[in-house]
Amino acid sequence: MKCYAVMLMALVLNGCGTVQTVVSSDKHTADSLKREKSYCGAVPRIYSGVTYDFCLMNAEVREGVDTFQHNNANFGILIDAAASGVLDTLLLPYTVYKQHADGSIVIN
Fold this sequence. Notes:
There is one protein chain. The chain is 69% helix and 4% strand. It has helices at residues 2-14, 17-23, 26-35, 48-57, 67-90, 92-102, and strands at 42-43, 105-106. A two-stranded antiparallel sheet has the order 1-2.
């Protein structure tokens, strides 16, 4: 039972904006936003998960996706942004240090 809970948590956190920006490499984060055709030029490391989620919401709508599906996807991203806000707050000392040391994650 514990194994299933750990696997479920790993799957849920894999899509989290904070995990995508703090744990993943800068290149992976930049490539994922480029692939989604986001209009963001850079993502600051402080509250990077929330910023990443809003960059995804500000991306181009893919061909073949109707407005209803796009709005539902944005609702899911808003839920993730709330969870990322909590996690970003907990990681604030680390991300402030990383922002000072490495600067923002450049997309373009």
